[in-house]
Each structure stands twice: as structure tokens, then as C-alpha cells.
Design brief:
The structure is a homodimer. Chain A is mainly alpha-helical. The first copy, chain A, has six helices and four strands; from the N terminus they run H-H-H-E-E-H-H-H-E-E. In chain A, helix 1 packs across helix 3 (39-51). Chain A binds a DNA duplex through helix 3.
Chain lengths: 147, 147
Amino acid sequence: MKITSKGRYAVLAMVDIAKFGEDTPCNLSHVSVRQNISLSYLEQIFNDLKRANLVKSQKGPGGGYKLNKESNEIRILDIFNAIDEQIKTTGCGNDPKSSCSGTGKKCLTHNFWENLEGVIGNYLNSVYLSDLTEEYSISGERRAISE
Amino acid sequence: MKITSKGRYAVLAMVDIAKFGEDTPCNLSHVSVRQNISLSYLEQIFNDLKRANLVKSQKGPGGGYKLNKESNEIRILDIFNAIDEQIKTTGCGNDPKSSCSGTGKKCLTHNFWENLEGVIGNYLNSVYLSDLTEEYSISGERRAISE
DNA sequence: TAATAACCTACTAATTTAGTCAACTATTTA
DNA sequence: TAAATAGTTGACTAAATTAGTAGGTTATTA
């Protein structure tokens, strides 16, 4: 039960863009340094993010990336979807070897895994990028971070 | 964001044991066939489950595994812990390369990932093995499955 | 004592992850 | 208009993890 680095980086980089890219576009070299993420890897990630219309780009000197929507309009789940970070716990349906698929009847645990996916998905859908940039700790009720 | 096969198999096999091992112990060959899981792999998994005192074993002919507690006393989180299926989303703290560790200050997304871990952990802690054997679909309020 | 089934360890093939590398294209500024 | 900047794209690869397999040992029972 882990998030891939790609997923972690994507969210982190989006927070970075949201914080530092308000006036001028953020170029990825800066994000790379600030967040300690490989530049080439960031390029791949932003490729996906752009395709999902979460960011817009500006080429040439002084260019870079900006958010394409307000940060309170971007859900963390949107970011996950953009980079194809799937929430997949069942294992059913994809491979013919699985005990669930093929047979036509659900495996004993099918509903449970689906519910777990729902719990995770609901949470990711309820948190917005702005929640992270505002440095709130989201946990039911929201409390400010003392930092 | 995936569960490993080991995790899926462990939960599935525990449900199997709970269902079929009430009177006589379940031997793993049968579980293997019923749930379509490799026998050797099951052996490894039950090694862990036994070490965590979730099951007890009986060697020799007619032997096998039984639950070591009532199924309404075993939480899914217990099973995850037994087989070391970690809920780890931060990526901070473990490797020195991560943007969070070393520097002494939390990365921008640290609290978010911790909250996500909390959401998942709470859910897994709230569901019992008996919830699965009774074929309930757990989702906030519980509804019976029409099957 | 033969069969059964748990127990244990080492090994490996396949897959996924986390990148690297190299080239190309568009834009801006000097 | 040339040079520099920065995004765009695709192919490749090393490392790590996963998902097993294989082969034996030990304990128990009929």
C-alpha cells in the first residue's frame, strides 16, 4: 500500500507551482532544485499534468508552468488521475489468473476492496491543492499548523 | 496506490479459513485450490500470520490452520501488520534522497500524506474479518448483499 | 512406518519504478 | 536574426520489488 514516487512528486510539484508561480511562470529547473526532484522526471510528469489541463506552459526564456485553474479548483484526485496513479486494490478483473475474474462470481473479498478504494478516493477527492498551499493539516476538522 | 498480492491473498485466505475452518482445521492445499493461490506462497503467508498469533496450526494428517481468535476479534489491519503490508505514503524519513528528510523541515506535502495514511489505517482498523465472512458490504452504514 | 501437512530457506523470473539520455521545437531577448 | 532558454518527446536502462518456485526438514497421526 504505497504511493509511487511519481504520485508524490506530482503533488509536491503542484504545490510548488501553486506557491511560486502566481506572478511569473515556474520553470522546472527551479522546481527541481527546490523540491529535489530530477528535472527529466519532472518533465515527464508535467507532460501528463498539462495533458490533463491542470497546468499551462509558456515556452522560451522567462517561460515555465502555471496552474491552469485556481488552486481551490484542483483536487488531489485530479492530479492522481492526470498521472495515472491508480487506486486499485482489488486485483480482480484484470488478469485471468485472479480468483475473481473469469469465474463470473466475485471473490470473497471483492466488496471489501472496492469499499477501501472508495474510502481512499473520497478522501483524495475532498482535498484541494489550496488546502496544501495554505498549510492546513486536513483531518476531519481543519487546524492551522503552528509553524 | 496498490495492495500487493501478498496482502490480497492474506485477507482472502483468512476469510477462507474463517468460513471453512470452523470444525476441522483447513489445510493449505485446499485453500490453495479454493482461492487459486500458489501453495508455497500460502505457506509463507501463513508463517507470518501464525507468528502474529492470528492463526494456530496442527501438523500431520488431518492437520491445518484455524483462526486463533474469533473472527469478530480480528481486524483487517491486524492482517496487514502480520504480513508487513505497510501503509506508507510519505516517502519521507526513510531515504536520505527524499526532499523531506535530512533537511530537518517537513516537505510541503508531509501533513497531507500523513493524513491519507490515517484515513486508510482507520478504515482497515474498523473492519473485522467477521464483516467479510458475513458477506456484508461495509461502507459507512452496512447493507446486506443481495446475492 | 508410511503418509500427510506444516515449516523453513534459498533462489529466480517477471514486472514495475525511477529515472537517464538525446534530440527536437517554440519563444523571447539582445 | 542569432543565441539562449525552456518546454516536448521518445527510447532506453539500472535498480528494486514482487510474486512466486523449488526442495528440503520436521512433526503428527493412522
